[in-house]
Amino acid sequence: MSFIESTLEDWEKLVKKQLKTENIYEILSKDNLENIEVKPYYQNNSETKILPKVEESTHLVAEYQDGLEQQAFAFLLNENNEGLQEKTIFINNPDLAEHILTEETNRYFSLVDVFSDDKTAEINEHMAGELLSKAFERQIGIDISLHQNAGASIIQQLAFALAKSKELVEKFGTEILEKLVFRLAIGSNYFFEMAKIRAFKYLFNQLSKEFDKDLIPYIFAETSFRNKAKNDEENNLIRSTLELASAMIGGADAVFSNDYKIENQTELSREISFKQQIVLAYESIINVFEDASSGSYFVENITQQFAEKSWRLFLEIEEKGGYLALLKSGEIQKMIFEQATKEQSWVEEGKIKLIGVNLYPKLEVKKTVDELYNADEIKKVRLAEMFE
Questions:
Q1: What is the CATH number of the domain that holds 194?
Q2: Is 72 contained in some domain?
Q3: Angle, CA of 304, 209 and 302, to the nearest 5°
Q4: Burial category of 332 from C-beta neighbours within 10 Å (exposed 0-12, middle 13-18, buried 19 and up)
Q5: Domain assignment of residue 123, yes or no
Q6: Rounded distance, CA 105 to CA 120, Å?
Q7: What domain range includes position 214?
Q8: Among 130, 143, 148, 338, which one is most buried in terms of CB atoms within 10 A?
Q9: Is 314 domain-assigned?
Q10: Segment 329-353 mean pLDDT
Q11: What does the pLDDT look like over 225-255, one tens digit per residue?
Q12: Is the full-model pTM beyond 0.90?
């Protein structure tokens, strides 16, 4: 059997014939908030070298509760628990991080971010010192989940992560790069979020090379609050399942599912949220692949675009004085505000569809953009709050 090799021009001719128009890209293209060029179809293109995970397989992280010790091997702790053995522990509470007693059989990672999120624009050096003195595998968290949940674009999230890393290097030296955990929130744009993680691996590795290192970032990915709604809670489960899949396929080292219920959370809802991960991992084994999306021309292309645009923004931030300087001046907050309010307007207009919110059924707007957002503050805002 022989195959005829088709060129891009051959495909274009066929599509023009089928759609009966010469202007096929106007019909088939779709706008996105990231200003990423998305084509209707792709040819083979050069692959971006994406680094493997730090962990051999993605950790499935549960919020600690009695009864899950035999089902979960990684826990997110908000309070001390000295009975855990042979677990991977992610410390989520700054008070706990200072006082936790480490067990030799466990592995410990800190998710505690030492940056202020307001115009004080400071690094908590006391907290950083306490964390760095602990026998954790990685002691300092860089939290970009807040930025995603506040409405920052993917490009902004990645640039901020790099800029915060650079600030820590300037404060504590280059060895700090080996002690970081990056906390990312994963949104609903399935392939974009996959590419976000892939691009960040490449970007952080490039940053580390500027300091004569060759490092892989440790990525803790969690489901977003941004697209979740109080109504039709089951839709939140569908959204978070896709987010978890994006994170695992993209190459996160650990994944965590926040409770799918916005209100009236229970032990059962927390357990169901965690077990989404188990179903995904055990039924599809997507948590063990180094880069399951490698070779997808679409994902490769948008990964490259995210990497290039994020690096460019990072350099702009550095030229203006760095992350803390722009946080103090309010420019970081303004950047997020402008992106977030644009996204909110797309939801209000129906360009972004949330089932059970602005589609099936279409709820009435109850809050304005001005009531939800503040140009001087980085805060979590759910898109559905406008209708609740």
A1: 3.20.20.240
A2: yes
A3: 5
A4: buried
A5: yes
A6: 39
A7: 59-284
A8: 148
A9: no
A10: 97
A11: 999 999 889 999 999 999 999 999 999 999 9
A12: yes
